[in-house]
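Why do we bother with holo predictions? Because pocket geometry can differ from the apo form. Keep that in mind while you read this record for 2-phosphoglycolic acid.
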Amino acid sequence: MRRPFVAGNWKMFKTVAEARVLITELLPGLTDIQGVEIVLCPPFTSILPVAALLEGTAIGVGAQNMHWEASGAYTGEIAPPMLAEFCKYVIIGHSERRAYFGETDGSVNRKVLAAIEHGLVPIMCVGETLDENEAGITSEVVTRQVKEGLEGVEAQSIGSIVIAYEPVWAIGTGRAATADGANAVIAGIIRALLAQMYGDELAGMVRILYGGSVKASNAGEFFRYADIDGALVGGASLQASEFIPIVKAAAS
Ligand code: PGA
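The structure, written out:
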């Protein structure tokens, strides 16, 4: 049985002061929800204060990106051991990083391997663009992203990895994939590919999330599918009135 997983990706929103307000609004609603792994991914500057506010709760903290090297002359970058002091999770290869910051399947792979090496759980994002979707090559694109992203990941580590399927055309657009369409990719392409790569049992341990315009009003539709293990939530994770019901939907 895979434990449902819901992560909030705050992107480049919330100062420390604003983060404190959001955590204060979220905590009363989130702390008594059982059976869901809940993770908040604030910007780097808020990781420490958010981690402090979440201490003693079961809610985890994640980062939105990192470098793959453990240290070095990389001005402006953050290394895995720096995150590992405060975080258990790290989002890797979000489509905004691929689109605006030159991330490739190769850099995603280095980061996934570095996360594992430093004891962080990578939340590896994959998903096709609108053009790729309309060209009918979703399967090729997602297959390549998963294969290359996981290159060199050993069987003993695969079970703890989280994969987020986020069709780029659904992110921040208000136009979510249909639950049926998301399931077709998650079950039919990603989990099937993991089974080819690692065998059925290990493939059955990997949490695979849907992301892209998940809201309180549509989350339950995705979670009805046994292969959709939760959600990576962007915009709606910035509002307690949206995020709390999404987590509740994952619990039920
Ligand atoms: P969205 O973003 O929920 O705002 O569409 C999802 C994501 O980018 O992870």
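Residues 179-198 form the longest helix (20 residues).
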